[in-house]
Design a protein that fits this description.
By secondary structure, the protein is α+β, with helices and mostly antiparallel strands. It is 55% helix and 15% strand. It has twelve helices and five strands. Strands 2-1-3-4-5 form a five-stranded mixed β-sheet, sandwiched between helices. Strand 3, helix 9 and strand 4 form a beta-alpha-beta unit. The longest helix is centred in the middle third of the chain and has 24 residues. It is elongated, with a radius of gyration of 22 Å.
Length: 246
């Protein structure tokens, strides 16, 4: 029975039939557990850690606490997680984004097929090379939030020349929301304070549906209105004006 089921799963993988997360994890576990029904274990892992990335990022002792997962299986998953981190790091280091066509292609490659909303920050060298990719997700379908201190942490650790932000809309509509505009303004302020240039914020809703704050002209206005120097200057001017009037 297991052999027939596994062959059907392999066929789905081969034909790219849109495997669910639990099915993909189930197949991954076949090599570590060749004679065990891995479907239930895959479900239990996802229920415990919330997502595939959560499973692959989990510590060995936490993995072995899941029913059906022994130390060898936990080490197998941990090894794959470390492997993926290095693959992502390599991909980031070789990417050079010289124009907005290349930026859009990179965003599409990164966000295509995501099943939950994700925000990504691309730390850039001056020559356009991607220094690091940092992804944030709450594993919520239509909502993801990033605290300001997490953004600042990335800026302080990486000290990039510039950053590009990107996130996905699962609705199929790439038009920015009020929350998207607020996030872009906050991001610009954080970049300004830390002497980092915000090159663009892109919203991905499909390969042919990518909104660019830079290309739309909105980023120019946001950069002007939410520059730390300009905001402080405007505030001081208002204080002096009020003092004179009083």
């Amino acid at each position: 029975m297991h052999e027939g089921h596994r062959q059907r799963m392999y066929d789905k993988l081969k034909n790219d039939d849109g495997l669910h997360d639990h099915e993909l994890l189930e197949i991954l576990l076949y090599n570590g557990l060749p004679r065990i029904n891995t479907n239930l274990i895959a479900h239990e892992l996802l229920n415990t850690f919330g997502s595939i990335s959560g499973v692959l990022d989990a510590d060995v002792d936490k993995l072995t606490a899941v029913k059906g997962v022994g130390e060898s299986t936990a080490l197998y998953l941990k090894c794959i997680g470390e492997f993926m981190k290095r693959v992502n790091l390599s991909a980031a280091n070789i990417a050079v984004l010289r124009n907005h066509g290349e930026i859009k292609n990179f965003v599409a490659m990164r966000l295509r097929g995501k099943l939950s909303e994700t925000i990504e920050i691309y730390c850039m060298h001056k020559n356009g090379r991607v220094k690091r990719v940092t992804a944030f997700t709450d594993d919520e379908l239509h909502d993801v939030k990033v605290r300001a201190d997490k953004i600042v942490e990335v800026l302080l650790v990486e000290k990039p020349f510039a950053i590009i932000a990107a996130h996905n809309h699962l609705s199929g509509d790439c038009a920015p929301s009020d929350n998207d505009r607020l996030f872009t303004a906050e991001l610009q302020m954080l970049c300004s304070i830390n002497n980092v240039k915000l090159l663009d914020h892109l919203i991905y809703a499909g390969d042919k549906k990518i909104y660019s704050y830079f290309l739309s002209g909105e980023l120019e206005e946001i950069t002007r209105d939410f520059s730390f120097k300009n905001v402080v200057s405007d505030k001081i001017t208002k204080i002096f004006k009020n003092n004179k009037e009083n």
